Amino acid sequence: MPFTVSGSFIECFSSIESCRWRKRTSLCSFGECFYVDMCNDRSDVNYYCSAASPYKAIFIALAVLFILFLCCCGGFSILMWNNYQKRSRLPELNYVLRPLDQQFVQQQYHPRPATTTHY
């Protein structure tokens, strides 16, 4: 299946050299020269200059995705850091126990419990 391109916006060239020369001097400066079987339904011109390089477009798309990824990671990191700072600034909570609760706590949680070893 032959590869053909057509359209009023496409410039066709007979050789790769003329395409590259025109690429330097025209609006096609961001594009690339490609070989085609037919350009604008003519078989005598086999090169055309694309409006944009597909390789550059893929690179730019990946760069934008990478920048978005970094922004999301940075935003999440800033959010977590702010939460950490807020928590560290909170005063330490002091629990006041009633006398009955204090007696219960002392009975249950002795600082040095007696240990017995059974063999």
- Global mean pLDDT: 77
Structural class: mainly alpha
Along the chain, the helix and strand elements come as EEHEEEHH
Strand content: 5-15%
Order of strands, main sheet, comes to: 2-5-3
Which geometry do the CA atoms define? rod-shaped
The termini sit apart by 88 Å
- For the secondary structure, the number of strands is 5
What is the radius of gyration computed over CA atoms, rounded to a whole number of angstroms?
37 Å
Helical run tally: 3
Helix content: 40-55%
Reported for the largest beta sheet, the result is: 3 strands, antiparallel
Q: pLDDT below 50 for ≥5 consecutive residues: which ranges?
A: none
Could you please describe the fold and organization of this structure?
- 47% of the residues lie in helices and 11% in strands.
- It is mainly alpha-helical.
- It has two domains: 4-52, no CATH class; 54-91.
- It starts with a strand and ends in an 11-residue tail after the last helix.
Concise account of the structure shown:
The protein has three helices and five strands; from the N terminus they run ββαβββαα.
Which features would summarize this protein structure in a list?
single chain; 119 residues; 2 domains; three-stranded antiparallel β-sheet; two-stranded parallel sheet; 3 helices; 5 strands
